[in-house]
Design a protein that fits this description.
alpha+beta, five-stranded antiparallel beta sheet, elongated, 17% helix, 5 strands
Length: 87
């Protein structure tokens, strides 16, 4: 019997992420082959003339393809910077 260790997931449920082709919200994640795979719900644009067809806004992506959105990164960056500034 062998033990396999995996690192914690980089993203969490309901977190905004960006990727090549758009951005969306993490809806779930699962371990797969030594990394994490995320189910992302993409942001809906205007409804097309032919309507929506169901799960067209969901995409499965590996962790390596995802980044935190700029707004989340900026907010975290500013908080961290302020806490390191001497008073």
């Amino acid at each position: 019997m062998t033990a396999t260790f995996m690192r914690r997931p980089k993203f969490r449920n309901a977190q905004w992420v960006s990727f090549v082709g758009g951005e969306g919200i993490v809806r779930s994640y699962t371990p797969e082959y030594g990394t994490w795979t995320y189910l992302i719900e993409m942001v809906l644009g205007l409804e097309p003339d032919f309507g929506r067809v169901g799960a067209e806004t969901m995409i499965l992506l590996p962790e390596a393809d995802l980044l935190t959105t700029y707004s989340e990164f900026q907010a975290g960056c500013c908080k961290q910077f302020k806490s390191q500034t001497p008073s």
